[in-house]
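Customer escalation, tier 2.

The customer says the design service returned an amino acid string that "doesn't look like it belongs to this structure." They asked us to rerun it and document both sides in this ticket. The original structure tokens are below, unchanged.
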């Protein structure tokens, strides 16, 4: 893999380092600082001419800062004659703004896709996009990876599998994701009927399925303010669940999320490292991290070698 280079922005350097190690290469040497006025400065300290370059940069909060770092780093690499540039975006910021929900509203997820392409991306790799249709917002190839196989494997190894568990979707939109987890853990599934009353506000109304005397596992793509999650926990206990866990790909954990999780009856949350945890989250005692670095590294090696990526979906 002499032609492979992996660089990192400042959003998730820990994950980038793990990805480089798993791919068998050293992380590229670049510096990203800010000028006195706040503008971003990028300096690349090694040649990338003719190389296949991969940039690992989650566009998690602060999303605007991390997006600008990604754009400027891609521009620098393009002008340094990189053969190809792949934006590896484990968490795709603005993904929830994927359609018009009101008159004169933007579709920000599409705008970000246009900006990523304009800045120089020849390909995009992401994990568990909030809506799979976002792949169609790009005019370059998109490899949409899934964390559920990794999370389900870790779950089986730690807590087992079978009919003693029930995988729970917190809303109708997450049924496919929950079914994928349930299939791998060989357990039944249930659905919580949830209706939103406003941004970051949700109310769990009705449980479809049987959770009585079972260990319930709530499956979601992300945990933001944890309002949906904690309401789902209460609903499951009211319906007879004996234990409640949660599995989510992206630990956004904004606002009151940590305090809600700590105060809830939730036993533990399993998340990935697409977004680095804050100190408060690390110290909560309820969050366990499963790394997706091996998944991303394998995708990078296959893209670099022009091999199939689709087998990673299993």
């Amino acid at each position: 893999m002499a032609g492979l280079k992996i660089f990192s922005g400042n959003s998730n350097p820990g994950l980038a380092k793990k990805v480089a190690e798993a791919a068998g290469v050293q992380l590229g040497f670049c510096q990203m600082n800010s000028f006195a006025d706040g503008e971003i400065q990028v300096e690349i300290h090694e040649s990338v001419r003719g190389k296949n370059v991969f940039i690992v940069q989650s566009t998690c909060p602060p999303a605007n800062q991390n997006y600008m770092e990604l754009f400027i780093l891609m521009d620098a690499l393009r002008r340094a004659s990189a053969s190809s540039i792949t934006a590896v975006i484990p968490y795709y910021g603005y993904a929830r703004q994927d359609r018009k929900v009101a008159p004169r509203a933007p579709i920000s997820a599409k705008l970000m896709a246009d900006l990523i392409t304009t800045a120089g991306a020849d390909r995009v790799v992401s994990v568990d996009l909030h809506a799979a249709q976002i792949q169609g917002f790009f005019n370059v190839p998109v490899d949409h990876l899934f964390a559920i196989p990794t999370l389900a494997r870790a779950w089986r190894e730690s807590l087992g599998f079978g009919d003693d568990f029930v995988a729970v979707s917190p809303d109708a939109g997450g049924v496919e994701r929950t079914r994928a987890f349930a299939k791998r853990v060989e357990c039944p599934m249930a659905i919580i009927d949830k209706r939103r009353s406003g941004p970051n506000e949700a109310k769990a109304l009705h449980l479809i399925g049987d959770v009585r005397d079972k260990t319930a596992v709530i499956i979601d793509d992300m945990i933001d303010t944890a309002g949906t999650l904690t309401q789902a926990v209460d609903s499951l206990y009211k319906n007879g669940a004996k234990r409640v866990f949660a599995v989510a790909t992206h630990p956004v954990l904004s606002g009151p999320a940590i305090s809600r999780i700590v105060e809830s009856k939730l036993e533990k949350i399993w998340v990935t490292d697409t977004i680095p945890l804050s100190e408060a989250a690390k110290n909560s005692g309820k969050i366990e991290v499963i790394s997706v670095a091996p998944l991303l590294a394998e995708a990078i090696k296959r893209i670099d070698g022009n091999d199939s990526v689709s087998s990673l979906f299993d």
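Tier 2 assessment: The sequence is consistent with the input. The chain has nine helices and 14 strands. The longest strand covers residues 189-198. Sent an explanation to the customer and offered a walkthrough call.
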